[in-house]
Specification:
- It contains twelve helices and 25 strands.
- The protein is of the alpha/beta class and about 425 residues long.
- The protein binds shikimate-3-phosphate.
């Protein structure tokens, strides 16, 4: 076994204050949109997760200068513009890198090749190949999977109806549209995270957003971006592991500071409302156009079951593994529906979660687009769990270990570094 951790039965509670590390989605966008401002800007509080470092390295290999002035603060200098990269562009495990950067490189006059790790190489790319090709990008792929070879150049605007509610697809098209002729309009049935739109408005792009009979739309025109410094708030998808741990480990009380609370990411808090969890939102503020706040979460007995489906799914798509853990502790029937795209994440999360939960003795039924969990029974199984290089599974299984009566082994635990390298240190700092 390459790397793994062995957990022991936990007899304590979680208590204390923590600062949640920076948001992954915002970090990718600060780097990518920042590279388009043709000047020097400061990016404060950048995620040091491997996914965002992949994006940073690709930009550096393409002529953009970047220098850390402290642990998480970076000066990005795009004043000399891009140049043709001399190497393959390695996106590692990061779907956001390959999809958003495909939009960027479609609009640049170079030939590039994107590669990735075993997990990323299995993920579908047709969702971006189709719209970017319609805009004029030439893309070769391995049957709509990586590696992707992109020959970019002059693009024309399109109107595109995205069949998957995906912020990555929407963002790839909008980024390409910043350098396309005419207007580029993207429609989606349900609103996915809108960080790209907010940041583009903040940086002065020509962009409008709205809703009509065809769905939610965003429209951009060719724009140059203003050089403004960007500050990143903490990642609610990382906070979700601690929020859930606080809600289910008896006697816990955790203050999670500086969490991004963009309404398109608030699905988990809507679930917490439904189940009657004990939490408070404190100290709201705005950073670079995005709202953030502190979240105080306390353990509560007898949480109520939940059902999630439809419009809420994009608002909590990355939180479904940890919400499954939450469901396993709740007396009654919890249902996750309309979440078929979970099969296209870092692992097929419907299948991998079902397999792991069955090994743990949790009553779970796999469905094509989700699962049903009848929770509330004691978890009392000594098991070895595979993470399939999926960071969110690794962290979800760790949270289960806090309520499992028996020790567990979690394989490839280092994959937590994809989004949340500080996970183990932070959780250890509040174990009492
Ligand atoms: C992301 C969008 C989501 C999410 C991913 C990050 C983004 O993917 O799962 O972790 O930063 O745009 P989809 O938009 O493809 O669902």
């Amino acid at each position: 076994m390459d790397n793994f951790i062995k957990t022991e039965k936990f007899r304590g509670c979680l208590s204390g204050a923590i600062i949640i590390p920076p948001d992954k989605s915002l970090s990718h966008r600060c780097l990518i949109l920042g590279s388009l401002v043709k000047d020097k800007i400061k990016i404060s509080n950048l995620s040091l997760g491997e996914d965002c470092i992949s994006t940073l390295n690709i930009l550096k290999n393409s002529g953009i200068k970047a220098e850390f002035i402290s642990k998480r603060d970076l000066i990005l200098d795009s004043s000399k513009g891009f140049c043709e990269p001399k190497c393959e562009l390695d996106c590692g495990n990061s779907g956001t890198s390959v999809r958003l950067l495909s939009g960027l490189f479609s609009s640049l006059p170079y030939k590039v090749k994107f590669i990735g790790d075993k997990s990323l190489s299995k993920r579908p790319m047709k969702r971006i190949i189709e719209p970017l090709s319609l805009m004029g990008s030439k893309i070769n792929s391995n049957e709509n999977k990586l590696p992707l070879e992109i020959t970019g150049g002059s693009l024309k605007g399109i109107t595109y109806y995205s069949s998957v509610p995906s912020a990555q697809v929407k963002s790839a098209i909008l980024i390409a549209g910043l350098n396309a002729s005419g207007t580029t309009r993207v429609y989606e049935k349900f609103l996915s995270r809108n960080h790209t739109e907010i940041m583009l408005k903040y940086l002065g792009a020509s962009i409008i957003t709205g809703h009509d009979e065809k769905g939610y739309f965003t429209e951009v025109k060719k724009s140059s971006l203003m050089p403004k410094n960007l500050e990143i708030s903490g990642d609610i998808s990382s906070a979700a592991f601690l929020m859930t741990a606080g809600a289910i480990v008896p006697n816990s009380k955790i203050l999670i500071k500086n969490v991004n609370i963009n309404p398109t990411r608030m699905g988990i808090l809507k679930v917490f409302d439904k189940i009657g969890a004990d939490y408070e939102i404190l100290n709201k503020k705005t950073l670079s156009g995005e709202e953030s706040a502190d979240i105080l979460i306390k353990y509560k007995k007898d949480l109520k079951p939940f059902k999630i489906e439809g419009e809420i799914i994009p608002e909590l798509i990355d939180e479904i593994p940890i919400l499954a853990v939450l469901a396993s502790t709740i007396n009654g029937r919890c249902v996750v529906k309309d979440a078929g795209d979970l099969r296209n994440k870092e692992s097929d999360r419907i299948k991998t979660i079902t397999e792991a939960f069955k090994m743990l003795g949790i009553d779970i039924e796999e469905k094509p687009d989700g699962f049903i969990i009848n929770g509330g029974k004691e978890i009392n199984k000594e098991v070895t769990l595979e993470t399939h290089l999926d960071h969110r599974l690794a962290m979800s299984y760790y949270i289960i270990s806090l309520i499992n009566e028996k020790p567990m082994i979690i394989k490839d635990f280092n994959c937590t570094k994809t989004s949340f390298p500080e996970f183990s240190d932070i959780i250890n700092s509040i174990k009492k």
